[in-house]
Amino acid sequence: MEPIFAIAFGVMIAAAAYMVMSRNVLRVALGFLVMSNAANLAIFIAGRMGTTVPPLIASGQSSIESSANPLPQALVLTAIVISFALAAFTMVLFESAHRRLNTLDTERMREAEPIVGGSMIAPKGDITDPRRQPQVEAAR
Amino acid sequence: MTPHLLLTLPVAFPLIGLALCALFWRNHKLQRAVSLLASVGLLSSSVALLFATHDGTVIATQFGSWAAPFGISFVADMFAAAMVLITGIMAVAVGVYGLALDAEERERAFFHPLYQGLLLGVTGAFLTGDIFNLYVWFEIMLISSFGLLAAGGGKEQLDAGVKYVALNLIATIFFLISVAFLYGATGTLNMADLARTLPTIENQGLVTTLGILFLLAFGAKAAVFPLFFWLPAAYHTASAPVVAIFAALLTKVGVYAIIRSFTLMFDTDAGFTGPVIAVLAGLTMVTGVLGAAAHFDTRRILSFHIISQIGYMLIGIAVATPLAIAGSVLYVIHHIVVKANLFLIAGIVDRAGGSFHLKEVGGLYRTLPWLGILFLIPALSLAGLPPLSGFWSKFTVIKASFDAGHLALAATGLVVGALTLYSMLKIWNEAFWKAAPDASVDAMRRFSADRTTRLIMVAPAVALAAITLTIGLAAEPFVDFSMRAAGQLLDKSVYIDAVTAASRPFERRP
What we know:
The structure holds 2 protein chains of 2 kinds.
Chain A: H1 2-20, H2 25-46, H3 70-101, H4 133-139
Helix pairs in contact in A: 1-2, 2-3
Chain B: H1 3-23, H2 28-53, E1 59-63, E2 72-76, H3 78-97, H4 103-108, H5 111-127, H6 131-150, H7 155-186, H8 191-197, H9 204-222, H10 230-234, H11 240-264, H12 273-294, H13 298-319, H14 322-353, H15 364-367, H16 369-383, H17 389-403, H18 407-433, H19 438-449, H20 451-473, H21 475-490, H22 492-501
Antiparallel strand pairs in B: 1-2
């Protein structure tokens, strides 16, 4: 079982990395969801694939012979709750950013770091001017 | 007080503050009182914690009386206690300052609950003895900081928030994956237990890999060289008290985690990890200070300086001699005070001069000479001029790297110190020395008329400047404290014994 889970982890991380590198914030948010689920999968594999018997002591016995490791389940549960909350926050933040900035494109979100006199990382020209946009797109 | 109470109270006060502030979300006056009281409670309980640990004892407790590798541990050694104390001081100073500057606007955006949440996450991260819980505390801290940053809802802040959230979330998920791999390799997450288990692992290459993974995860939080882009993208959009508490605490939690994990769990052996950290430290110092030299907005200059100063703190871990670690400890403590103070003063300059942009303010020294002096104390301390606190902490890390033969690192530190002085003089020349533009004169008139606001804003800055001067003029007890804290950090057995003694002896998992 482990190799399959390990491959699944790799594929999810790769897909998430691809989406997170996108210029569209919606894809970035989806990438986070996939990536945090990959992290949960990593914790799950780290706890070893083994028996599925719940860690309960049967009546008349004082110890368990074999049982599932409860710790990774507790960890994954915590991580799921946290990543869910963060994902919800991220979605709301990206949505309100979309409303205020009128764009989903991270390259055009330059309110906090406006380009003064051209920059290496951003397209040249005044990106807030809509007339310049087609040229910028063509230049890419 | 029992260790249990001593270790719980610094976390309990912000938690109660958070709960009550959220409960009274309509009543801003009550929130202010609760928030300040909770911060004072945090400060007083952290003083008690420091008294219990300052003689070198490490106190630990297990929640729910579960034995150490299974239960949740809280541990405080001298370093952790000092960090909690400085958090308490910042909580009160910035909390008071936050009452003055556009308080109503921030309170509508839930400033007080989020502020207490931030403090909760920070103190929890300093005190926890379990690496998964460290992740949880990081998250509490992070989501509060997201809220504080995006709270205003302005265009600039939302844009900054998108980048801050995106880059920090990636770092956090990376941290979680590293924790998973660590658990897979060792079967334990308790830091004291990890310190015992990791050296016994046969495949030491795996341990080095894990160490580098954690270095990347914590390095992103601490704004280390290639991973710092979230910081200058976001910090300069927040209001002065928010950015002051961010600058004071957020990156330092990352530095604390690096120092803790690389003294307790992973070795900075001369072969791989040590040189990697040394190179990162040098590049962090240089890129940060060059960014600061290029900008003309006070908040941006100061944000870039956070990055360059993180490099100095990493020197200690890279060199890893007792003196170097002591230098790092002293540097972290000094820097929290100085950096928060600089942002508080930047807020005052904005209020008195009308802008954060240096081209639009001026002439402040002519009308407010005391503000000039107040700015010079932390500014020159950051640059490392004697007799201020920055001199002793820079002197310690640079001397340690000279002694250990890290000449390039020491030279970088000296050059970066000079460049820091340059950008501080830039702020001084532009904001205080040159003739005042007309807009600036009007702002000054308004500022001079509002006596209460001025008092509330200046008092915390004066208090923090006094701490800087105290560390600078009476350095000996502080250096001595850092030396002993470093000795404690390097002697893992003290930490492991304390966690073991707090519960039944370690039982290895079958």
